[in-house]
Specification:
- The radius of gyration is 19 Å and the shape is globular.
- The chain has seven helices and twelve strands.
- The protein folds into two domains: about 5-140, Alpha-Beta Plaits (2-Layer Sandwich); about 170-300, Alpha-Beta Plaits.
- It is of the alpha+beta class and about 300 residues long.
- It has helices at about 25-40, 55-60, 110-125, 195-215, 225-230, 275-280, 285, and strands at about 5-10, 85, 100-105, 135-140, 170-180, 185, 190, 235-245, 245-250, 255-260, 260-270, 300.
Amino acid sequence: MLRWTGYRVVFECADGWRAPAFTGSMLRGAFGSALKRTVCAMRLRECDGCPLEHACTYTVVFETRPDPTKGVMTRYDRAPHPFVLVTPIERLREGGGFAAGVRLFGDAVQAAPFVLRAFELAAERGFGSGRVPHRLTAALTEGKEDDRPAWKPGSSFGRPTLLEDPSPLPDTIRLVFRTPLRMKREGRLVTPESLDGPTLVMNAIRRIGLLATFFGRGTDGVDFPRMKAEAERTQLVDAQLSWRDLVRRSSRQNAELGIGGIVGSATLHLSGSAELSRLLAWIPIVHVGKATTMGLGQVEVVP
């Protein structure tokens, strides 16, 4: 359904540095700015109306447009991004640097060298409001047991390593929401009290289906009406959930914005569908809900 690759990027900082409480927004902003500087051939002009708007690596990865030939999201000017960040939610220690993860999906896998170079440039320009310089020391392929880096600054970029598709889930799983899960239902934010199995499962199916449609091998063979019916039979039980407030700083809007969501754990009973088990196995990889490009919606699945 989807090709994918993932890296753990390691940063060092020589000077003492006080990280923000939530690093995802900071990393996403620094990465996006650096990616445009890395690949833009049009002197950093506005992307809307640019002659290369639909062919540029930056717009494919970071300001993703829906492909009108796919026949979905035709009324939207933006599509789901083909990447997520895997970021620490705890405040980082002062000095010594930190690590974060980035995953690329589908056609965006080929952009991996540009993405890693952008993280290197972002580190050099500095993180946080004080623009504290860092150094990217290595990029490690996600899931590899050895510590040999996939790339080190100063060396040539190799071909991205494709990672394996996830195995189907068992019929009963424990979900651990590592970073806030933020989603809406009928225009309203879903709360720990209102989250249920069908809402969670349909949100995940929609996200996985859109990623496969725009960037992967499509969704041929997936009976979505049947998936919806089976999602309605799922149950979320033994929920130990709470709400975690998070705030990010938007330089574009010059304001602080709330991006809190649901954290904790719950048990999900599926409907016995093999197709549903196969699709939902992608949840820990692609995340679920809103702001996944900042690291939100990170879910661990425990059998």
